[in-house]
Request: fold
Amino acid sequence: MDAKKIIMDGTGIRRALARIAHEVLERNKGIDALVILGIPTRGVNLARMLEEKIYEIERVHLPIGTLDATLYRDDLGRREEQPSLKETDIPISIEGKHVVLFDDVLFTGRTIRAAMNALIDFGRPKTIQLAVLIDRGFRELPIRADYVGKNIPTSLKEDVQVHLEDVDGVSEVIVIPKGDGVEA
Amino acid sequence: MDGLLVKNGRVIDPANNRDGLFDLYISGGKIASIEPCTASVGNGTAENVIDAKGLYVLPGLIDIHTHLREPGYEYKETIKTGMCAAAAGGFTSVACMANTEPVNDNESVTRYIMERARGGVNVFPVGAATKGLGGEVVSNAGELKMAGCVALSDDGMPIADGGLMRRILEYSKLFSMPVISHCEDTLIADGGVMHEGFTATRLGLKGITRVAEEAMVARDIMLAELTGGRLHIAHASTAGTVDLVRMAKERGVNVTAEVTPHHITLTDEAVIGYNTDAKMKPPLRGREDVEALIEGLRDGVIDCIATDHAPHSPIEKDVEFDNAANGIVGLETALSLVWGLVENGIISRDCAILRMTSGPADILGIDKGSIAVGGDADIAIVDPGKEWLVDPERFFSKGRNTPFSGWKMKCKVVTTIVAGKVVYSG
Amino acid sequence: MRLKRKDLLDIEDLSRDEIELIMSTAKSFREVSDRDIKKVPTLRGKTIINMFYEPSTRTRTSFEIAAKRMSADAINISVSTSSTVKGETLKDTAKNLEAMNPDCIVIRHASSGGPHMLARYLKCPVINAGDGTHEHPSQALLDLFTVNDAKGRIEGLKVVIAGDIAHSRVARSNIHGFSTMGAEVRVVGPPTMIPVGIERLGCSVVDSLEEAIVGADVVMMLRVQFERLHRPLFPSIREYSLVFGLDTEKLKKAPPDVAILHPGPVNRGVEISPEVADGPYSLILDQVKNGVAVRMALFYLLVGGAKE
Reply:
């Protein structure tokens, strides 16, 4: 029954975020015109955690927000049930900004495609960059992440789940056989 | 030889207190003999024999309130299809209402109807009470009577003018014709489309209060009392109407009343889902009304069961509830519906038969409704235990508008005989 | 998540869970209307037909905007009907529409049950935009949404619905909706406008407006529908407004933070005085704004999913 593998613990997640924070700052040469947007659900928490790391380094708060791309998904007409909608909250104009999208797991790339389309309806950012905690492969679209917490080789028979203290009471990344455990 | 022998059947004729296994020998359209099965001899002369073993042999049913639609509305029903429907329902006589086009308010129309109705079940036209059903001038009742009408009624066009109703009740005495009154004060009904109550409120449909009926029943009873005229209340639908008729009868007023099979089997809840096949006037009422109507039927306050057979085409029923025509077909389901009440012990078997045979015959003053030697050989042979499924597509009537579609019913008509001739064989 | 139904015909049928799902979905959609580009591609290529058999500006516009903001192709058909003119029957209309393969039909009809009839003949979802004096489900959902937004809850609230209850589809839908969500509903109006057995829908009946609004959290004033009153149910407009019109004087009986709702269009000075309609606790314009979000939510939940 217990086929779950812990591939990252709380400390591992913190370290990955610290590294990503540095990479973001390095690549953008500072914090000018940076915006971080989390993709619900856990991407929102990760975005907040990333912002905190950057604050620890730079002592400046970056604008953060939430971008739900559900309405832009390409599978809406194909599913039996409509996915439930989450909040979208983009506090400032993204026109000309460097936007870092944060999602928990990068898989097929379809969510990111939807998120980019959604984002462009809000304005024309200077760049869109992608941060993910986990890249598990199996891309179906030509999309890659700019910042990756960890690359994990997986099989399609497995689910990767990111659990975070704020949402799940524990911080860890686990791999479980598909169909086990709670919602992905 | 036109002889017909109906043998081995259980003959039930409560009007003559007869219930037992008898052979009926029919000749010349009349009942020639009624002999206990065991004693039955010398019937070899009959050309035709019907073996009614295990079946009930009843007096042919009589419907005092039918709409045959012809002339004028042949797309809804013709006299022929209506007669076939009647026969299939065990009816041997029907009285047809005057709301045809042209209206049956003169001898030409009456004679036309009777001509078209030759052969098959007996058709007794009801003449219009007012010219053109206009509610303004008393019709030529004498002419109608002589042409063959047995009663007067404006049915669905209630006579709002009380003074006129008085004159009709007075004048019709001359011809001993009952005046059949569809009691509905249309100003009180105020455009309602179903019974006023919780269901109407819930469905957002405009209700018709019971008082719309009862106010006119009370008026007509008082007018009948005043004039000594012969009043018959059509399709009573409320407990209050039953009370009014009961009190009137106790006072000796010359009043009778009918109820339909649907008003004693369904309530206003049948409308739920905007079922236009549950739309009629008077509307289906509440549970307490159904109980009072049945009580009235049991104790004789209600004299007869009448179908108010009202065929419509889908053009008039397959529309929004507000716009749908009133009425349902009833000839082919009436007996089975009433039999359902018998099976459930709600009314007695004899009560059911009386109210569908001698009850209506007495109101119309026709010498029918029982099985007696020398009497008309109008017979319904039924299988009381036989279950059948109501499939409107198989109706003989052109009308498919029934709320009983898909109902499983008991008591199936096997053979209907009118004046010694088999008019239906199921 | 998905509504467990093909059509939205009445609130009476909806469970608490379904109402909550619609409200939470509407919350997400409200933000779309605040964007510069007020459009999402969710229903691209879908065809939504708005069929209005009764005049309507607000509801029809609201459904149309909702459809367009979701990138659906919205087509409006106004059908003028009069019982004397024999036009195409609703059944024929349904068959013709079916042949055009729409993805959703929004229908307003003068007869109670009209949308139900249409829904029986159509494979696509049918949304009732008001049928006769029966129900107006999208209105009740936006009222619930607006109250929930303003008060933070619905459970336990005291809600007064005042006016012509008998002829109001808004009243019926709101009685069902608010009672399903755990509010206490009182209706008040002239006895000629209180239909038989209304309390069995889940509300109490009060005679006096002043009495009814004591302790009320929400007061919903219904529009006096002159067009439905072929025989007046009250002596004069002046008398109606005197006895049942909500003005600042009567409003003093209500708690200071009472929310005022009106489904519109308002007969100013009849059922509600201008001071109250435009007053600080009036949510009338919030209702209009939320109407679009609620209707987008309905389209999302009913139209968006896979076809059978």
Remarks:
- The first strand of chain B starts at residue 4 and ends at 13.
